[in-house]
Fold this protein.
Amino acid sequence: MLATSACALALASCSGGDKASAPAGDSVSVGVLQSLTGTMAISEITVKNAEMLAIEEINATGGVLGKQINALVEDGASDPSTFAQKASKLIESDKVATVFGGWTSASRKAMLPVFERTGNLLWYPVQFEGNECSPNIIYSGAQPNQQALPALEWAVKQGYKSFFLVGSDYVYPRTANLILKKHIEKGGMQVLGEAYVPLGGTDFSGVIAKIAQAKPAIIINTLNGDSNVAFFKQMQAAGISPKTMPVMSFSIGEQEAQAMGAGLVEGSYAAWNYFQSLTGDANAKFIAAYKAKFGKDAAITDPMVHGYLDVYAWKAAVEKAKSFQPDAVRKAAASLGGFATPMGTVSFAANQSLIQKAYIGKLKADGQFEIIADSGQDIVPEPYDQLAFPGKTCKL
Amino acid sequence: MDALFLNQLFNGASLASLYLLAALGLALSFGLMRVINMAHGEMLMLGGYLAWMTLLVVPGAMGIILAIPVAFIGAAAMGGFIQSTLIRHLSARPLDTLLATWGVSLILQQGARDLFGAIGVEVRAPEWLTGSFVAFGVTLPSARLFIIAIAALVLGALALLLLKTRIGLLVRAVNQDRMMASASGIDVKRVDFTIFCLGSGVAGLAGVMLALLGPVTPNVGQSYIIPAFLVVVMGGLGSIVGTTASAIILGLFAALAQIFVDVSVAQMLLLMFVILFIQVRPQGVVAVKTRQLDA
């Protein structure tokens, strides 16, 4: 491992003509690829904002290896094949050194072959379902054992023994629920129902009728994007409120709560590795900087902070590797050690995922979460859940 | 199972009323002008945004009632504008209209994105529409009851208009035989214009109803345009009775299928059902008798 990275380092510093390893001129291009339109815009526009903020801050303090960062923003349009096309455009015609972006696992899965083929590096900021481990992606969002499983543990501790799983119909909710089901069954508890709605779908009448019929102790919600608005609205209309039947959501943060109207989702639970309400100077400083740029009412979410820290981690890794070469950068990132972020000091594990804490929050009327539980210590990321995917391990 | 079945019957009726409101305008303009209006979904979107703006100005309990005429008139005006500036000049060229109205649809979506943002806005239903009633062990949300009532009212008003008024008589005449109607002195272009405005207005009204159930986004119309086309095709082109019957059949089918399968699979089954239905009965639920030679 050490030998190869030293070799890559040596190679990179020798071959000065290579575009990816030593961009010409005084700037280095990077791609920022999020959905600025479509059903995921509700979540992803702010992640783009956070990534741009980090890039601006770095440029204001001298850039990376003496080069200013030139950010090229592209719109993935909530459509996996658009993500793949734009990733390929950024890497092959714009010659970016790296790309920050993606939200849905469908978008990440669509981009993966592009990054593997071109040998470039994607910094992916969102919690996901695991069961994937590519050398060409740095996964800073939570693995299942850093969000979904801590949330399940918390629910069981509260005495919730029967579950209804509702999600958008794509790879993340399906895989996350597969993992949850294995753990629920192993614990001798019950899954009373499972329902999927196409991404962006707005008709929840059937799903809600099934929930009312099943009467679960708690609903686990893996809906993504603005389908959540329709879901909570129609739940409210059917007379089911988060107060009478708790909902644990994996993709609703402060931004989504604000856009949906916090009154609609008040009292529902969320599991993340960061909440805006976390204390600490680094977080206060980040929130202040973001609000100064994007307005005092701006909400801050977990994926935004992951997007923001990804840019800083890339900078640190480039400086450690003394190269923009993706292979050298990813190896340097995995061996960076602890670095300061708005969510505290974190570090990357050898599997290129972030070692981080998990928190459970309860949504208040003002759109902020009250943190009601945490995992205590940092959780080491495990891409492959051993109950759902026995024997699979991460090989990089 | 019984409660779930009853619940889904009710949800089917509610879905059918949405399909009907979304499809009526399409059925009218297709029946009359043989125009496939790809921008019809954007009339729904326009209605949703107009409802949102109305509620900003009149936030009280009656805001949503006021939003209905506002959305109807706003969408009708936009429909009239599109008809008189674009569709009228392309009326004899169905494929060109299809492409041109698709372009209009994209322009309207991008316009909404630039004006209101990509994230979408939320129309908060007033108190009297957020509650629910319980009957026979089934929860009936007031918002959905309201939508069913509005759809029934619109359908009734439209039937009266077509069967009992002079405008209705002209519309039926043009629908049966455009050339003969024109030859007997009916201003066919004016009838086209009126019907297009009316159809767009009804779609705008449907947009208000959608806003009660979900977010209003620049692409909200896209998720209803396909079911609306299915309803029109299955109903028999240009027949209001057929459109109503097929909206009810498709709404119930989609809702009842969801008892057994996921929403995604239910959508697939719905498409397969329509394909099979059209194979067996290509003329649709109700065949329109016309005296046109080319029909």
